[in-house]
Write a sequence for this structure.
């Protein structure tokens, strides 16, 4: 089995054949969800962000969900090689020990402990992540709709079944079940701006949000553990009946509300 596979269109393939792949050619980098991928790609991340990309100076959009989001956020930190090594170590050494009588850890406790770990990792370094001079971070999440608007055993299972079938029929039909929500960093030197999305978001409903400094990692991070949000938190998220995402372009609610919401978004995350 080949260790590497390159997928490219005719023009891109012809360019690569003539010039090879240079760091100056990079405009965007997507990072997949799925914890084991983050471990497998750790050494490659260290090479790309520690040695290869620094050979160029153009802006690069970093896009990720779940562990991919944390990998790309880590790439924005000063000394990314050391940061990636610590991310790998901390990820492997997570421990969600069972409490007496538990068959598996409660999702709310996993979310809370994961949030504490992220606070310990990124605490005091949010500015490095959200205001990197080159890298524009985009954290991909999804907001549940219809049967997926709340977490409930059979409703959730039925909702995901419906989403699966809808996606087989038409990508756009998936929008009846899920809405893409993207948290994007600011453009350098343009306070209040949001970096434009580096991908076509017309396939199904999408809204873009600008994370408030000090909230994304300090409070809201535990809810980004998985890239799906069931708005079960709306009981506790004061002031928003639609859950924590609100309307298109809304800012995140106050940190106190995010803490409350983290207690009830027990399985899915915003």
């Amino acid at each position: 089995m080949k260790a590497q596979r390159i997928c490219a269109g005719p023009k891109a393939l012809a360019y690569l054949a003539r010039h090879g792949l240079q760091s100056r050619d990079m405009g965007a980098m997507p990072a997949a969800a799925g914890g084991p991928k983050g471990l497998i790609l750790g050494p490659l991340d260290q090479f790309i962000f520690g040695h290869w990309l620094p050979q160029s100076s153009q802006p690069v959009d970093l896009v990720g969900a779940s562990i991919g989001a944390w990998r790309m956020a880590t790439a924005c930190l000063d000394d990314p090689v050391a940061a990636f090594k610590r991310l790998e170590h901390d990820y492997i050494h997570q421990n969600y020990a069972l409490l007496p009588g538990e068959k598996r850890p409660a999702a709310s406790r996993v979310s809370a402990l994961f949030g504490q770990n992220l606070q310990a990792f990124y605490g005091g370094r949010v500015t490095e992540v959200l205001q990197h001079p080159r890298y524009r971070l985009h954290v991909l999440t999804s907001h549940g709709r219809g049967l997926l608007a709340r977490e409930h055993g059979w409703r959730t299972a039925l909702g995901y079944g419906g989403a699966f079938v809808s996606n087989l029929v038409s990508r756009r039909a998936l929008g009846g079940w899920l809405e893409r929500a993207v948290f994007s960093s600011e453009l350098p030197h343009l306070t209040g701006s949001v970096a434009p999305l580096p991908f076509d978001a017309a396939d199904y409903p999408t809204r873009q949000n600008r994370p408030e400094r000090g909230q994304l990692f300090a409070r809201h991070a535990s809810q980004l553990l998985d890239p799906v949000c069931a708005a079960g938190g709306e009981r506790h998220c004061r002031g928003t009946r639609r859950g924590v995402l609100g309307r298109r372009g809304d800012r995140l609610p106050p940190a106190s509300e995010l803490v409350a919401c983290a207690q009830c978004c027990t399985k899915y995350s915003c």
